[in-house]
Every structure is written in structure tokens, then in C-alpha cells.
Amino acid sequence: MIxxxxxxxxxxxxxELKRKxxxxxxxxxxxxxxxxxxxxxxxxxxxxxxxxxxxxVNPTQFNNNExxxxxxxxxxxDVSLLQTISEDRIIVYSPRASDIYGEKIASEHxxxxxxxxxxxxxxxxxxxxxxxxxxKRLFEIVKPDRAYFGKKDYQQLMILKKLVSKHDLGVKVIGxxxxxxxxxxxxxxxxxxxxxxxxxxxxxxxxxxNAAKAKFGTNSAKEITDWMQEQFENHELLTLEYFLIADxxxxxxxxxxxxxxxxxxxxxxxxxxxxxxxxxALN
Length: 283
Ligand code: AMP
Prior knowledge:
Number of domains: 2
Structural class: alpha/beta
Number of strands: 9
CATH superfamily of the largest domain: HUPs
CATH class of the largest domain: Alpha Beta
Helix content: 25-40%
Distance between the termini: 42 Å
CATH topology of the largest domain: Rossmann fold
CATH architecture of the largest domain: 3-Layer(aba) Sandwich
Number of helices: 11
Bound molecules: adenosine monophosphate
């Protein structure tokens, strides 16, 4: 497995592959890889000759310094996991911040036509400017044919589709299903930071999302939102930050359903200091 830590060597290598007409998939990650990441990589390997996996804990997308400091960094383990997926068709790019940002670690500002002001954008100021900045730079370095992102971060996926269309980046953005543990908890690198008790409690998030989905046919969005808040009101280990039902395209919170539209429920929960997000298609 080839691991590059700088863009100069990476691009020289990738240019040679492209010259041969080989296709390139791309899976950007922040490392601490798990089966959710693997599912994206496997999808990339089905569609492309090679898959580039970047492993980079991007400082500009963190609005909380402690979250950034405590974010797990497990490069050796990550490379071993990737080796079990494919020895010769995965290319790893694990840069230092200076390789992406030069001297000054700062975000560009983006206009994603309002998608950035909803949900995560509201609770994590600057987050999507950081995501947009790093993904745009990574796309410019890797120049993939296709890039794979998880619906676990559904808002991010929609924003990156917008990034590509607004900036004409020529990459096909593909959304992949949420990969879950057997008990329903969406896989996340942050799950590693949960205590035993918090980990045992966390599947409650998906359980209530499913219940919200079951109610969607008969109850209003407001009734479901109120019900959800009640479920978490006196929870010992989980604190609800937000739950809402939104239009799956505009991500705007809805008050009333209309026909011919797709809706999703979105949730953010704290287990102690660990922030977990999840979402589900409602129709
Ligand atoms: P991260 O390393 O958390 O930044 O995630 C890298 C990519 O993996 C993003 O596109 C995420 O949406 C995706 N991802 C993370 N967890 C999951 C999961 N449980 N299922 C599917 N995709 C995921």
C-alpha cells in the first residue's frame, strides 16, 4: 500500500495513472477508520480502478478546540485496515496541515445557497466553510472522477454536491448509505470516545429515529418533534441538541408535509462531551 504525505509526490503518481486512462475514486476521511468508511471505499473500488483515501483531521472544520484535540488519530491502524480491503488498489494521502493550507490555516468563505445555515451550520459556526475549503483543495489535488460521502453527514453531502456544481469541479459526488453497528448506532470515529455506559445508551438515538419515521404517516412534524423532545427530556446519559424534520433537498425545517417531496429527520445528541449525529429518510 502506498502512503503519501505530500501532494507533490501524490500528484506525480496520480498523473501517471490518469495518463494511462485509469479511473480514480476518492474517499476523504479524518481517519480512525471504521466499517462506515470501509463501505464507502468498497463502493469506490467497484466503480474505479483506484481509490484514494485521504486521512486528515481538518482543523478548520472544528468549532470546538477540545473536540479537535481529542479527535482520535490512529494512522498505523488505519493503514492496516485499508490493507485488508485492498493491498494494491488503495492509495493513501495523509498530509500535514501545511500541505493543504500552506502557512496560514484558515477557511475560505462559501455561499451554498442557504444549505449551510441549517442544522449543523447553526450549531457549528464556520463548520461548512472548513469542510468546503478542505474538500475543494483535496479535489484540486486528487482530481478524482468520483468522490464518495456518507449520508451519515447528509447535510455535508448536499453541500458538497453544491460545491461541485457552483465551482464546476468536474467530480461526480456519490452519496452512500449509513453504515450501522448491529444495535443500530451509526458508526462514527467519535464512538471510540464513548464510555461503556454511553455506548450502551447510544442506540436509543436510532431507535427513536425509527419511531419518528413510523409516526410520520399519521402525525404532524410538530407532534413528532414534541414527542422526540419528551423522549430525551429526562434521559440520564443523552442530551438532545436538536431534532427536526426537513425537506431532503432544501434542508429547511418543515411545519407541514406536502405531497411529492422527500423528507428526512435529523438529530444531534450529546453523550457527555461526545457529539453524535444521525438522520433517517422518512418517506
Ligand atoms: P469522517 O472521517 O467522519 O470525516 O467521515 C469520512 C466520510 O465517511 C464522510 O463522507 C462520512 O459521511 C462517511 N461516514 C462516516 N461514518 C459513516 C457511516 N457510519 N456510514 C456511512 N458513511 C460514513
